[in-house]
Amino acid sequence: MNRKPLVLPAAIGLVASVLAACGGSDSGGDGGNPISVGTTDRFTASKEAPAPFDPAYAYDVGSWNVLRQTVQTLMAMPNGGGDPAPEAAEECGFTDSANERYACTLRKDLKYSNGDPVTAEDVKFSIDRARSIEADTEVYALLSTVDTVETKGDREVIFHLKSADATFPFKLTTPVAGIVSPKDYPKNKLREGFEVSGSGPYSLKAETKGDDVTKVVFTKNPYYQGISDIKNDKVELRSFEDADAMGAAIDKGDIDMMTRTMSPEQIKKLQDAKDSNIDVIEQPGLEIRYIGFDVEKPSLKDKAVRQAIAHIVNRVELTSKVYGTGADPLYSMVPATVTGHANSFFNEYGEPDVDKARDLLAAANITTPVKFTMNYTTDHYGPATKLEFETLQKQLNDTGLFDVDIKGEKWDVYRPKQREGKFSAYGMGWFPDFPDAETFLTPFLDKDNTIASPYVNKRIREDLIPESRREADRLSASKSIEEIQSIVARDVPLLPLWQGKQYVAVRDDITGGEYAINSSATLQLWELGRGVGSD
Fold it and tell me: What distances in angstroms separate CA 419 from CA 135, 166, 412, 461, 492, one per listed residue?
């Protein structure tokens, strides 16, 4: 069998794998060959991004997937989905009715991978450190509702929040809340390079070539205590230049599994292959792709220009031409299946309509064609990104209303430029920090947002975001969340494009591939094992 579609319930929070791994399993290490996993995520240390694996800095899915294997958090998302569960903590919970005081008790005798004890003071140090460093990735904004952190003894930690935040347990599952030792991490600056230490499932050793990581070796942490059942002793994560190189490696048997990002052509070829020893696992996903607009740039400052673009972009054509069945059109920043999702852009603009775009620009006295450049990254979101932007460029330019140029750059150059406001329009992807609608809205719309957007809407920031956070019942938060989506559709500081599925290709002597990645694109390497009788 070459394709294993993983059928999951539609409702977020009910995600549960339904396929069992084939065969028994033994250790991926223990004197045998380590399990080798391929990725096209690139890890580079540069002047602009000196600390790609520091929890106080990292804010992309690739680096977070490295940290989730090594740096433990108080809470974690269970393999089957649902609410956050205690991880480094023995128990956690709100201790007041206002959702403003949150207390955790650490597991007894919790230790780092070097055997040193993990204490409540370490937790306080880690949270305070991330908040005080204020890295330019803006990852610290996930902790924006924290006022002070208090400790009692060696095991009890109390978070006093500035305002009600029912999503705080979810935020404690993210790597920025990871627990690190003051012995290894300086208080007031980032830990540069690729060293990582923590109390998670594995210890880490990075192999490098120049400023780039070529391989990350994860070795089972003998002191680990948490909710994960580690099914191997050692896993290697190999970073490839592109999807073709990664595909060649799995064909030759140099790697056992490949994750993000395979090309649409690779996926189809593997799915159609007969008598192959490589299985493709398809899962629903919460990855989204969108265009961000700098609303202060002259060419895009007038809202009518951005609304005209929203009238023209044809998502159905874009997804079918570029991604086939691997992506679905998305009409909101909040994906389908997430509580609070609304088709706000479809409600506002309907089907693509060039005449409405032309009338809108004429009514606003906009001289056409409107000229601007759309920037995209060539090596971060997969090989189809170039065709995606060529398609968008053609859709806009064929109307005669726009004269759009496109420019692609590597991620280590592209991302700093984007944060510095050097682009008028830019393509970005997003994987959720945690499975809740807030993580698809506040990182782009609140103060200290991760894309450094100059767009400000007081109604969103001062009323709707705080309102949504007050609701412990996330269904009750939907009214505020839906209004945020409607405002975004009218103002168009962001233009959602599509929601993607997830694919894993795994050799059939490897077990646990069905559980190796969850709907939030979190890599769970501890789920992998070797089948009985494999080398």
Answer: 12, 29, 12, 20, 19
